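ok so i was messing around last nite and threw this chain in just to see what happens. nothing serious, just curious
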Amino acid sequence: MMIYSPEEIEAQAKLMAEEAHLNDPDIRTIYFFKADEEVRLLEVTPSVPKSGEMDVFYFRPAPKYGMPAPSGVAMVRPEELHSLSLPKGWGTLEQAKTILSNGRA
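result:
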């Protein structure tokens, strides 16, 4: 398992948040959960269906595109944000850093 610097992880998180917002302008908030081995993002958007679960989509590193670390992205509807459990090992919403709010990084 590779360990990445906090600066690498956060820079990738910000890049991914900006790209996500370009593809889904309805995203209200993106939370960043600090980890040494991967980027962890939670996107709050009305564009996803109500599911009753918080699934994570995992992606391999793509260094040539400025994404050296693997990443995990979960998406949730605004009304489900506080009723669903975060992925195991991600911590709490209070520990997360908001990197995009109301469409602004």
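not much to say yet. The first strand starts at residue 29 and ends at 33.
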